[in-house]
Design goal:
single chain, 83 residues, mainly alpha, 4 helices, 0% strand
Length: 83
């Protein structure tokens, strides 16, 4: 399992990129899973299919944008205990 949401989304994007590349060679999805995904990512076939349906790029961009916004807000916040 991924350590946090950002790492999970990066793994999903990596799997999606492998599938996209192999689909160019007309490789069946089951063979892609068995040959490239199963032993590298240690996920089941059903999880593999779920990951292919997740819009990971958009979710990662949204997550990173919200992290940047949170850091900016923390920077502006008044700290009473710092000297």
């Amino acid at each position: 399992m991924a350590y946090n949401r950002e790492n999970l989304l990066k793994r999903i994007i990596e799997v999606q990129n492998i599938v996209k590349e192999q689909k160019k060679h007309d490789t069946p999805q089951t063979k892609i899973y068995k040959k490239f995904i199963k032993d590298r990512f240690y996920i089941s076939y059903s999880t593999f299919n779920e990951w292919l349906g997740i819009p990971a790029h958009a979710q990662l961009e949204k997550l990173l944008a919200s992290d940047e916004k949170q850091k900016e807000l923390e920077k502006r916040q008044l700290n009473l205990f710092d000297e």
